[in-house]
Design goal:
272 residues, alpha+beta, 17-stranded mixed β-sheet, binds 2,6-diaminopimelic acid, DAP_epimerase_DapF, cytoplasm, amino-acid biosynthesis
Length: 272
């Protein structure tokens, strides 16, 4: 059968999206593994299905490129909000659910979307994680996806650009402290409201060009550990800036603002 898809990018984190309100896609794990392959498929970091919801405009269902269930994805959340708007599933103010949690989004202009995520409750600062003989200082924030945050200066790393993420990132991603593994982010503070961040993503098993839930985790850790004040600008590997902000007095939600664009659309030759 022909299956309509939309290829989108959120600050360089790319996704294939499907409107699955009719339930046509029966095996999303198999579909993700195939369609995300950059040589035998379309190529992306993950897939996102728009499904029906009883309580919000729609439900977002997200799978990583290796077929694992991703829970929440911040860049993908902005993309799915924009697509729902383009397909007229919603108007400019959007509500959706993902993995049992409630999200809001706003289309700001042709380029940018603002996503509101519930303020993370699960936070653990100043962890000591051992890898062989080395002890790493790290912080953990669950922003709908699990994220480990390591500041380069706290770990005597001189140049964030030179970290071998596929080695060090991967080792921390599989650290036994985390039952279900974790995404791993390295952060350098550039100035009083900007950080540079690099992410090793679980489920993609490599560095991605940007990570939304990771940016939120890094901004929250930067406020706690480095006394930074929101809004905090996060410079991603793609070169794009994601902005993370919250109200320090009434922080029910934290927002993530950045680009979300449709690259192309087409039809897959697909059998379930
Ligand atoms: N790229 C995503 C993060 C996905 C997290 C996922 N890799 C997992 O935890 O399995 C984002 O923009 O928030």
């Amino acid at each position: 059968m022909k299956l309509k898809f939309y290829k989108m990018t959120g600050a360089g984190n790319d996704f294939i999206l499907f409107d699955n309100r009719n339930g046509k896609i029966k095996d999303p794990v198999k579909l993700a593994k195939w369609v995300c392959d950059r040589h035998f498929g379309v190529g992306a970091d993950g897939i996102i299905l728009i499904e029906k919801s009883k309580t919000t405009d729609f439900k977002m269902v997200y799978f990583n490129s290796d077929g694992s269930f991703g829970g929440m994805c911040g860049n993908g959340g902005r993309c799915v909000a924009k697509l729902a708007y383009i397909l007229r599933i919603t108007k400019g103010k959007i509500t959706f659910e993902a993995n049992g949690k409630f999200y809001k989004a706003e289309i700001l202009n042709d380029e940018n979307v603002r996503l509101y995520l519930p303020m993370p409750k699960m936070k653990k600062f100043n962890l000591g994680l051992k890898l062989g003989k080395k002890l790493f200082k790290a912080h953990f924030v669950d922003t709908g996806a699990p994220h480990l945050v390591l500041f380069t200066d706290e770990n005597k790393i001189k140049n964030i650009e030179k970290i071998n993420l596929n080695d060090l990132g991967r080792k921390l991603r599989f650290h036994p402290y985390f039952e279900n593994g974790t995404n791993v982010n390295f952060v350098t503070v550039l100035n009083k409201n900007t950080i540079r961040m690099r992410t090793y993503e679980r489920g993609v098993e490599g560095e991605t060009l940007a990570c939304g839930t990771g940016s939120v985790a890094c901004a929250i850790a930067s406020a706690e550990i480095k006394n930074m004040k929101p809004p905090i600008k996060v410079k991603a590997t793609s070169g794009e800036i994601l902005t993370v902000g919250w109200n320090e007095k009434n922080s029910e939600f934290v927002y993530l603002e950045g680009s979300a664009k449709v690259i192309c659309e087409g039809n897959l030759n697909y059998d379930n």
